[in-house]
Write a structure and sequence with these properties.
Largest interface: A-B, 42 and 42 residues
Distance between the termini of chain A: 41 Å
Number of helices of chain A: 13
Number of strands of chain A: 12
Number of domains of chain A: 2
Largest sheet of chain A: 6 strands, parallel
Strand content of chain A: 15-25%
Oligomer: homodimer
CATH superfamily of the largest domain in chain A: inorganic pyrophosphatase (n-terminal core)
Order of helices and strands of chain A: EHEHEHEHEEHHHHHEEHEEHEEHH
CATH architecture of the largest domain in chain A: Alpha-Beta Complex
Strand order of the largest sheet of chain A: 1-6-5-4-2-3
């Protein structure tokens, strides 16, 4: 069992440590990367040897956070995972190397499995980056524009650019604090929320064409197959930000996105509103996440995966059927 | 010529006035309505007779701001336009009735034409509602959740839910101040940014199908004809929020949306990034707006209107052609 510790204790552990390896989750997003690179910069300011490791390549669009950050080579003496709810989410390679010996995990997922020796979770935070901002303060390191750029990215990306229910007053105030340092928020927002390639536009059109509605429009299912990706010319970057689309349609309680993986099996994303708990749906298929946004992976054909997730939604949310 | 006055002077004028008619612009959006209803509630708290007038019907989705607000009948003694850059934007009926005798205009458009006797403009504010929040403070009226709901709506809608360049630290802090009062921001965001009817999805698909690219992809033109609207089953609500779409495509400097009006002529919206000035483009066709978002109306066939706006963009932004 993991020990739960406070942010103050996290700061003490980090101040005492050196040769620190920070870990991001696979399919890296703005929050896991923002958390990792902000903390990396803060710890390097203290003269420590630190680097960030991610099981997947970091998408080019995040170059503005990663470029120029030194990544020294050393044998890790302290391993800290940020925004990683389960050691499986480190990806197979990193999990095998380090998954069994993570010293500390800082996270904002209530579903955190407690795989690390010590864990600091605050599920009330919209982004893990908000915890990191507080930890940087506790480390006594002055926030720089480079760190603030990473923190802002984490808050903005995990809150759908301040659109989701988790975008509370604290999220806005922390964003404002970052902006006071003169960060390029216009570019960050454009890169993360407002820029689509022509291939992405084409992929969205195909996905919308195949959108399926069930239970009087309360469930919407969108499928992205490898064939569609290939036909549209979309790359990995183009595939981000698709899961919110089905739930954006009026009357939809549960928005489901089936995304085929390279091996032919499927990654499922579930998004819900106030009517339903997304993590309860995904838990039935071995996944997890937040109340309004969760995910799981299911092996099988498109039809099998579709049937499994529909059944999970019907079980977890009986009102889907009764109305 | 109008007299330019400070927010403090605005508060003095309003404190001295009674039987106040507040005016919103036609095609009402979240900012003009949020500004009007917040100020209406604040002035009613002071025991004044106040009502809001808009030249167009208010879309149902804004019911959460308008419901329960008393709209007494009286002969206006003081007329105040909020977020209305030009008296033409009151719409023909309201302009004819009151356009020539507006006592005061509070606005955040740098292009305000100065049609009112006195004008208070702060073009640095993302939303007119931000000026209104400061004016409510100056009136000495405690902010209520109902007022804060209107102010938040104005800030969020005019900043693309904190995505555009105008969403600065002050916009975030004012949003947080509104949220402290317990406003239903999740519902507000869902209604304004995250809910699309099936008809809207269909309309977007048709619009994307017809998207045209010019000058090596630096210009994207999307056209919404009356025929497309009819075919999709879209209503007036479904037509909001389309203008940002063309500029969201990678490499696009100037995103242009041509929307056919009931009379067959076109309303044009122009969106730009850091490379170009949208209001300079629209000014050439008798329109105006902000640096990154502007509009104009052009009479003619689709082909004529298309040719006119392309020419205006080429004149206002020579680098479109030279690269």
């Amino acid at each position: 069992m993991t020990q739960h510790i406070t942010e103050q204790q996290v700061a003490h552990r980090l101040l005492a440590a050196d040769d620190i390896l920070l870990l991001a989750h696979q399919y890296p997003d703005g929050d896991t990367l923002g958390s990792n690179f902000a903390l990396c910069l803060a710890l390097q300011t203290l003269g420590k040897r630190v680097r960030v490791l991610c099981g997947d390549p970091i998408p080019e669009k995040y170059d503005y956070m990663t470029e120029g950050v030194e990544m020294p080579d050393f044998e890790p003496a302290f391993i800290c995972a940020l925004d990683v709810a389960d050691s499986k989410l480190l990806g197979p390679r990193v999990q095998e190397l380090y998954g069994h010996r993570v010293d500390l995990c800082v996270d904002h997922h209530g579903t955190n499995t407690g795989y690390a020796a010590e864990t600091c979770v605050d599920a009330s935070c919209a982004a893990c980056a908000m915890l990191i901002l507080r930890i940087i303060r506790l480390l006594g390191v002055p926030l720089t524009a480079a760190m603030a750029t990473c923190i802002y990215t984490g808050i903005a990306t995990d809150s759908g650019c301040f659109k989701y229910s988790n975008a509370d007053a604290l999220a806005h105030r922390m964003a404002a604090e970052c902006m006071d340092l003169g960060i390029p928020y216009e570019m960050i927002n454009r890169v993360n929320f407002d820029m689509k390639s022509r291939a992405r536009i084409e992929l969205e059109r195909m996905a919308l064409d195949g959108m399926e509605f069930l239970h009087e429009g309360r469930v919407a299912i969108m499928t992205i197959t490898n064939e569609m990706v290939e036909k549209s010319g979309a790359d990995e970057n183009d595939l981000e930000g698709l899961p919110p689309i089905p739930r954006q349609i009026e009357g939809v309680w549960v928005g489901i996105t089936l995304r085929q993986k390279a091996d032919g099996n499927y990654k499922i994303s579930v998004r819900t509103g106030t009517h339903a708990d997304a993590s309860a749906v995904c838990a039935l298929l071995g996944g997890g996440g937040h109340n309004r946004a969760a995910g799981c992976a299911v092996d099988g054909t498109r039809e099998e995966v579709r049937a499994a997730i529909i059944r999970a939604a019907e079980i977890a949310i009986p009102r889907l059927i009764t109305g």
